[in-house]
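Researcher: Let's try something more involved. This one mixes different molecule types, so please make sure each is placed in the same coordinate frame as the others.
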Amino acid sequence: MSAVTQDTAVSTGRIARVFFYLILVLFALFYMLPLYVMAVNSLKPLSEITGGNMMALPRVWTLEAWASAWSTAQIGVEPTGLRPYFLNSILMVVPAVAISTVLGALNGYILTKWRFRGDNWVFGLMLFSCFIPFQIVLIPMAVTLGKLRLAGSVPGLVLVHVVYGLGFTTLYFRNYYAAFPTELVRAAQIDGAGFFRIFWRILLPVSGPIAVVSVIWQFTNIWNDFLFGASFGGTSQPMTVALNNLVQSSTGVKEYNVHFAGAILAALPTLFVYIVAGRYFVRGLMAGSVKG
Amino acid sequence: MGFLDIRNVTKSYGPVEVLHRVDIAVEEGEFLVLVGPSGCGKSTLLNMIAGLEAISGGEIAIRDRVINGVHPSKRNIAMVFQSYALYPNMTVGQNMTFGLEMHGVPKPERDKALAQVAKLLQIDHLLDRKPGQLSGGQRQRVAMGRALVRDPDVFLFDEPLSNLDAKLRVDMRTEIKKLHQKLGTTIVYVTHDQIEAMTLSTRIAVMNKGFVQQLGTPKQIYDTPANIFVATFMGSPAMNILPAKVQMQAGAPYALITDSEGAPQFLRFSQGNLAGWEGRDILLGIRPEAITDPEGADRKSANIVALRNRVTVTEPAGADTFVTMTLGGRDAIARMRADASAAAGQEFDFAVNMEKAVAFDPRTEERIAP
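Model: All components are placed in one shared frame. Result:
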């Protein structure tokens, strides 16, 4: 009797599981569709796109569109390709991510382990900055950058993104360090370690997961930002602005294959960061929320 | 003047004073235990010695050097925390020498000190492990090792055994006592466990509500508690505190107390100075082990009083049997030999060792000193 019930239980489980996997695969395929279209069309000559099926595989495989997008395509008035803008973005995103993450970690460290009167208010105000939309800070930011003579430069963009990202990075590190036992800091104090030594030797070595969260978050946001780049980029505009200028140009033939290649180029770095650090991302987000 | 002087130290948070005029002089090599219930201020006092909390009033000195305002690392103290506070990213060896490294001690000397202490605590085989790979008892040893390596003037222990299971706690207690006897270090130890306080200390400070209730050797604290709080906090089961009246007979003071039937019983005091209390109410304090069966009574005592009373409950606890009866209208507990024949509901002949009895003023709850 029991053997029979068990048997049916297993077989229903198997059927259900096949069904679930089928649905999941379908969703995954559906989700991958835009990437497929982009990749496939970026590898075709333009004539194949204008003359036929977007979904079809290329009849003639070519990397011409990629080369053009990278180094010769018309961006605005200059035929430079996306390469110089890609470099601008790298020059902007690396220092901006590094500085905002380090400052966020220091803020979190101070707000949890060197508490002072009104520290919760300070944290509350910093948290508040996470909810301010980009558009609101455009004009005050323009004025500030003008006064600092940083308008239209990469350092200016770095400053904007550090200021804007600080609320988030502080939030991450503060919540992470709140779960870190304060007795350890006290023990280190008695052992004779100072403010920075405790941070460097005791807290930073265990901050890996949350640092990954902060880096991914900041990298994605800063790399993908368009509004600040377009507003304050000046002569050193980032990749996103250049991609817009490439795709939105209203003169000449629309080179869809080049546009697709350019769009993939613009998305590659964030994709790379996710693939390399992604598995720490969830771990870091979960850390601190549940003890143990 | 002692080795570690706590002079009139107070602690306030805003207008609230949580620690009132604590005055303790600790001699070199002494093992002082601060004991009391939660919130009595014992940990606050320890943190003030460590420099982790500011001193609101008075001063603390080590070797005659006032250390108010001196950074924790410059006080030449080491502390063992309740959670051990081992650095999770460092190996045991790195954990133990971190303090020396921060104080600029060169590597060869650090290694030498580490090897010495690791051998002493029998943790030499663990030096390359991370704290996460250690058991509770091993972590406890490492935490003590980290303090020992520094060779400080004063060791501070903040409830170091309360995270261990019962068996290990007893073992580590002995271990700490051995270590103290061997090294002769000066220790200030905080605990809420009165047995730890009794077994480990050379002197105990019993604290309650921010006051030091009594400071003395374990024997003084146990035999002559300064007040009812100390009497009932130290000792398990607690001292029996029984309402009684003083009556003089032929020049000697007696405690007049009602038994389970409400009939008066007379217990002669050994203490002679109670004539002034004649006819007045007192609280009579008798430890459970001072009420026994006649065969189990202390032969050396000069004042054993017989008392016949009805037994309410008996609780055999293996080594002893605890017998509850009604005395002075309250439950009184007697500690008998395991094979004493007392049975619930029956009358039984008890022997009360009145040499060990103490009398308290019911109004102030202070002991009436002989």
